[in-house]
Amino acid sequence: MSSIAPTMQAFFTQRLVTQRQVSPRTIASYRDSLKLLLGFAQQQTGKPPTVLDWADLDAELVAAFLDHLENHRHNSPRTRNLRLTAIRSLFTFAALRHPEHAELIQRVLAIPAKRFDKQLIAFLTAAEIDALLDAPVTGRWEGRRDRAPLLACVFHEM
User: Fold this and answer.
1) Angle formed at CA 81 by CA 79 and CA 86, multiple of 5 degrees
2) Do residue 75 and residue 47 come from a single domain?
3) What distance in Å separates the CA atoms of residue 148 and residue 146, rounded to the nearest whole number?
4) What is the spatial distance between Cα 108 and Cα 23, in angstroms, rounded to a whole number?
5) CB 3.0–4.6 Å: which of 9, 15, 52, 107 could bond 59 by disulfide?
6) In this model, does residue 157 exceed pLDDT 70?
7) pTM score
8) Whether the Cβ atoms of residue 33 and residue 87 lie closer than 8 Å to each other
9) Same domain, 80 and 143
10) pLDDT in tens, 71-106
11) Alpha carbon separation from 77 to 35, 65, 69, 117, 154 (Å, rounded)
């Protein structure tokens, strides 16, 4: 058995569930990310995940995996960064358990997130603003209460 397996099991059971108390969706996301990484490592090294060692998961392999996500799986930079977050979390946990791989782990942790342009909503059309302002029922106090901050936003922007 490799040294990755017990560390990965402890990462999920101790770190994520017990210490961090993350949501089941976060656990599933991290599981999927690491499953993809191990599958990619198996393709690249020819070793099944059960015999992979930390030395097999070096920064070059992780960088190639991230490129594979974008170029072959057509993942967005945002998804790539999400996968990188899961990998960094595992490697941060592994740094405490495997100081003999400190240099390798630090090189993986140094892989930067990919920058991307965030598309912003620049404005609402006049029809959209009118629809938003007309949504609260002004015949009741709750409707007037809900409409007041909307009006403040509209007048602030003018």
Assistant:
1) 100
2) yes
3) 6
4) 25
5) 107
6) no
7) 0.73
8) yes
9) no
10) 999 999 999 999 999 999 999 999 999 999 999 999
11) 19, 13, 9, 10, 34
